[in-house]
Amino acid sequence: MSSHASTSIPEPTRRDMLSLVAISGAVIGAAAIAWPLIDSMNPSADVIAAGAPIDIDLSKLALGQQIVVLWRGAPMLIVNRTPAALKTLQDPSLVSRLSDPKSDVHQQPPYANNWHRSVKPEFAVLVGICTHLGCLPGYLPNPDPTTPAPNWPGGYFCPCHGSKYDLAGRVYSGVPAPYNLPVPPYRFMNDKTLRIGENPSGATFELSSVVQM
After folding, report:
1. Architecture, CATH, for domain 15-203
2. Which of 4, 106, 116, 161 is an active site residue?
Protein backbone atom coordinates (compact mmCIF):
# COMPACT_ATOMS: atom_id res chain seq x y z
CA MET A 1 0.00 0.00 0.00
CA SER A 2 1.41 3.41 -0.93
CA SER A 3 2.59 5.67 1.89
CA HIS A 4 1.13 8.66 0.13
CA ALA A 5 -2.47 9.59 0.89
CA SER A 6 -4.77 9.24 -2.04
CA THR A 7 -6.55 12.45 -3.05
CA SER A 8 -9.44 12.83 -5.43
CA ILE A 9 -9.62 15.99 -7.52
CA PRO A 10 -13.00 16.44 -9.19
CA GLU A 11 -12.78 16.77 -12.94
CA PRO A 12 -14.88 19.30 -14.84
CA THR A 13 -18.05 17.75 -16.15
CA ARG A 14 -19.01 17.65 -19.80
CA ARG A 15 -21.78 20.13 -19.02
CA ASP A 16 -19.28 22.57 -17.47
CA MET A 17 -17.03 22.32 -20.51
CA LEU A 18 -19.90 22.87 -22.93
CA SER A 19 -21.04 25.93 -20.96
CA LEU A 20 -17.54 27.42 -21.07
CA VAL A 21 -17.26 26.80 -24.81
CA ALA A 22 -20.68 28.36 -25.41
CA ILE A 23 -19.80 31.48 -23.42
CA SER A 24 -16.41 31.91 -25.09
CA GLY A 25 -17.96 31.36 -28.52
CA ALA A 26 -20.63 33.96 -27.88
CA VAL A 27 -18.06 36.56 -26.84
CA ILE A 28 -15.78 35.84 -29.81
CA GLY A 29 -18.71 35.71 -32.22
CA ALA A 30 -20.06 39.07 -31.09
CA ALA A 31 -16.63 40.63 -31.54
CA ALA A 32 -16.26 39.16 -35.03
CA ILE A 33 -19.63 40.50 -36.18
CA ALA A 34 -18.91 43.97 -34.84
CA TRP A 35 -15.36 44.26 -36.26
CA PRO A 36 -16.11 45.71 -39.74
CA LEU A 37 -17.91 48.69 -38.21
CA ILE A 38 -15.30 49.03 -35.46
CA ASP A 39 -12.48 49.17 -37.99
CA SER A 40 -14.23 51.63 -40.30
CA MET A 41 -14.89 54.09 -37.48
CA ASN A 42 -11.46 54.13 -35.86
CA PRO A 43 -9.52 57.39 -36.22
CA SER A 44 -6.08 57.54 -37.81
CA ALA A 45 -3.05 56.13 -36.02
CA ASP A 46 -1.46 59.54 -35.48
CA VAL A 47 -4.60 60.86 -33.77
CA ILE A 48 -4.70 57.83 -31.46
CA ALA A 49 -1.02 58.20 -30.62
CA ALA A 50 -1.43 61.87 -29.77
CA GLY A 51 -4.22 61.13 -27.29
CA ALA A 52 -6.31 63.93 -28.78
CA PRO A 53 -10.12 63.87 -28.62
CA ILE A 54 -11.74 61.72 -31.30
CA ASP A 55 -15.08 62.19 -33.06
CA ILE A 56 -17.36 59.23 -33.65
CA ASP A 57 -20.16 59.21 -36.24
CA LEU A 58 -23.22 57.68 -34.55
CA SER A 59 -25.46 57.77 -37.62
CA LYS A 60 -24.62 54.15 -38.53
CA LEU A 61 -24.97 52.78 -35.01
CA ALA A 62 -28.10 50.62 -35.05
CA LEU A 63 -30.39 50.15 -32.08
CA GLY A 64 -28.86 47.56 -29.75
CA GLN A 65 -25.49 47.64 -31.52
CA GLN A 66 -22.07 48.26 -30.00
CA ILE A 67 -18.97 49.72 -31.63
CA VAL A 68 -15.46 49.86 -30.18
CA VAL A 69 -12.88 52.57 -30.84
CA LEU A 70 -9.46 53.19 -29.37
CA TRP A 71 -8.67 56.31 -27.38
CA ARG A 72 -5.29 56.68 -25.66
CA GLY A 73 -4.67 53.02 -26.36
CA ALA A 74 -7.78 51.78 -24.52
CA PRO A 75 -10.98 50.35 -26.01
CA MET A 76 -14.02 52.62 -25.72
CA LEU A 77 -17.39 50.85 -25.86
CA ILE A 78 -20.27 52.78 -27.42
CA VAL A 79 -23.73 51.20 -27.32
CA ASN A 80 -27.06 52.36 -28.68
CA ARG A 81 -29.22 50.92 -25.90
CA THR A 82 -32.75 49.77 -26.67
CA PRO A 83 -35.78 51.01 -24.70
CA ALA A 84 -36.08 47.49 -23.25
CA ALA A 85 -32.45 47.61 -22.07
CA LEU A 86 -33.02 50.98 -20.40
CA LYS A 87 -36.08 49.60 -18.64
CA THR A 88 -34.04 46.64 -17.40
CA LEU A 89 -31.38 48.97 -15.95
CA GLN A 90 -34.04 50.32 -13.57
CA ASP A 91 -35.53 46.93 -12.67
CA PRO A 92 -35.28 46.42 -8.87
CA SER A 93 -34.46 42.74 -9.41
CA LEU A 94 -31.34 43.75 -11.37
CA VAL A 95 -30.38 46.69 -9.16
CA SER A 96 -30.43 44.43 -6.08
CA ARG A 97 -27.74 42.23 -7.66
CA LEU A 98 -25.27 45.10 -8.26
CA SER A 99 -22.31 46.03 -6.08
CA ASP A 100 -22.48 49.80 -6.69
CA PRO A 101 -25.85 50.53 -8.33
CA LYS A 102 -25.78 54.27 -7.52
CA SER A 103 -22.21 54.72 -8.81
CA ASP A 104 -20.94 56.02 -5.48
CA VAL A 105 -17.35 55.04 -6.31
CA HIS A 106 -15.60 57.62 -8.50
CA GLN A 107 -15.55 55.71 -11.78
CA GLN A 108 -17.34 58.30 -13.92
CA PRO A 109 -17.59 62.07 -14.45
CA PRO A 110 -20.27 63.97 -12.52
CA TYR A 111 -22.42 64.32 -15.64
CA ALA A 112 -22.60 60.50 -15.90
CA ASN A 113 -23.37 59.89 -12.23
CA ASN A 114 -26.94 58.71 -12.78
CA TRP A 115 -28.80 55.42 -13.19
CA HIS A 116 -27.80 55.08 -16.86
CA ARG A 117 -24.21 56.38 -16.31
CA SER A 118 -24.27 58.52 -19.43
CA VAL A 119 -25.09 61.93 -20.87
CA LYS A 120 -27.95 60.57 -22.98
CA PRO A 121 -29.77 57.51 -21.63
CA GLU A 122 -29.77 55.70 -24.97
CA PHE A 123 -25.99 55.94 -25.53
CA ALA A 124 -23.55 54.16 -23.21
CA VAL A 125 -19.90 55.22 -23.41
CA LEU A 126 -17.60 53.02 -21.33
CA VAL A 127 -13.96 52.02 -21.03
CA GLY A 128 -13.90 48.35 -22.06
CA ILE A 129 -11.38 47.13 -19.49
CA CYS A 130 -12.47 44.84 -16.66
CA THR A 131 -11.64 46.39 -13.29
CA HIS A 132 -10.38 43.05 -11.97
CA LEU A 133 -7.22 42.31 -13.96
CA GLY A 134 -7.64 44.40 -17.09
CA CYS A 135 -9.22 41.78 -19.36
CA LEU A 136 -11.67 42.68 -22.12
CA PRO A 137 -15.31 41.94 -21.22
CA GLY A 138 -17.55 40.64 -23.99
CA TYR A 139 -20.78 42.30 -25.09
CA LEU A 140 -23.71 39.94 -24.47
CA PRO A 141 -26.73 42.26 -24.59
CA ASN A 142 -29.56 39.76 -24.95
CA PRO A 143 -31.38 38.21 -21.98
CA ASP A 144 -30.64 34.50 -21.59
CA PRO A 145 -31.80 32.12 -18.86
CA THR A 146 -28.51 30.22 -18.58
CA THR A 147 -25.58 32.05 -20.20
CA PRO A 148 -23.35 33.36 -18.76
CA ALA A 149 -25.33 33.15 -15.52
CA PRO A 150 -28.84 32.19 -14.45
CA ASN A 151 -31.41 34.89 -15.28
CA TRP A 152 -28.91 36.85 -17.35
CA PRO A 153 -30.60 40.17 -18.31
CA GLY A 154 -27.92 41.23 -20.80
CA GLY A 155 -24.69 43.14 -20.28
CA TYR A 156 -20.96 42.47 -20.20
CA PHE A 157 -19.23 39.24 -19.20
CA CYS A 158 -15.50 38.80 -18.64
CA PRO A 159 -14.62 35.20 -19.61
CA CYS A 160 -11.24 35.36 -17.83
CA HIS A 161 -12.58 35.19 -14.27
CA GLY A 162 -16.36 35.53 -14.58
CA SER A 163 -16.92 39.18 -13.69
CA LYS A 164 -20.26 40.55 -14.86
CA TYR A 165 -21.54 44.07 -15.59
CA ASP A 166 -24.90 45.40 -16.71
CA LEU A 167 -25.41 47.55 -19.81
CA ALA A 168 -24.51 50.66 -17.82
CA GLY A 169 -21.17 49.08 -16.86
CA ARG A 170 -22.27 48.54 -13.25
CA VAL A 171 -20.56 45.54 -11.69
CA TYR A 172 -22.45 42.68 -10.07
CA SER A 173 -21.95 41.69 -6.44
CA GLY A 174 -19.94 38.56 -5.69
CA VAL A 175 -17.62 38.70 -8.71
CA PRO A 176 -13.84 39.33 -8.79
CA ALA A 177 -14.13 42.82 -10.31
CA PRO A 178 -14.40 45.41 -7.52
CA TYR A 179 -15.67 48.47 -9.40
CA ASN A 180 -17.96 49.62 -12.20
CA LEU A 181 -16.46 50.09 -15.66
CA PRO A 182 -15.03 53.61 -16.00
CA VAL A 183 -16.75 56.26 -18.11
CA PRO A 184 -14.37 58.48 -20.12
CA PRO A 185 -14.75 62.23 -20.60
CA TYR A 186 -17.00 62.87 -23.60
CA ARG A 187 -19.65 65.14 -25.04
CA PHE A 188 -22.01 65.32 -27.99
CA MET A 189 -21.07 67.76 -30.72
CA ASN A 190 -24.52 67.29 -32.26
CA ASP A 191 -27.17 64.56 -32.43
CA LYS A 192 -24.97 62.33 -34.59
CA THR A 193 -21.42 63.09 -33.44
CA LEU A 194 -19.82 61.94 -30.20
CA ARG A 195 -16.49 63.36 -29.09
CA ILE A 196 -14.46 61.22 -26.66
CA GLY A 197 -11.74 62.99 -24.68
CA GLU A 198 -13.51 66.31 -24.15
CA ASN A 199 -15.94 67.30 -21.40
CA PRO A 200 -19.17 69.24 -21.88
CA SER A 201 -18.89 72.98 -21.40
CA GLY A 202 -18.25 73.90 -17.77
CA ALA A 203 -17.31 70.35 -16.68
CA THR A 204 -13.90 69.14 -15.60
CA PHE A 205 -12.98 65.45 -15.52
CA GLU A 206 -9.92 63.38 -16.32
CA LEU A 207 -10.02 59.62 -16.82
CA SER A 208 -6.85 59.35 -14.75
CA SER A 209 -8.83 60.47 -11.70
CA VAL A 210 -10.98 57.31 -11.47
CA VAL A 211 -10.40 54.86 -8.63
CA GLN A 212 -9.40 52.01 -10.93
CA MET A 213 -9.12 51.26 -14.64
Report:
1. 3-layer Sandwich (2.102)
2. 161
